[in-house]
What does this fold into?
Amino acid sequence: MAKTIKVKKVGVKKKDGYLYFVDKKGDISMVKMNRGGKRKKKKKAAKKRKPAKKRKPAKKKKAAKRRRRR
It folds into this structure.
């Protein structure tokens, strides 16, 4: 890697949380730094759903009797 060399002081007042760099046009630009660990807020639910109707338990079928062959 090349060693960083300070060329000239330009008098830019820096703010916390911003990244300063020289863009393609040669101007000094600033961008808000992306910090890890922040989570997005969840969206609110549109409407509450009605609770599902309770079903009656199914009736058990009687097992068919097997006939013996003689």
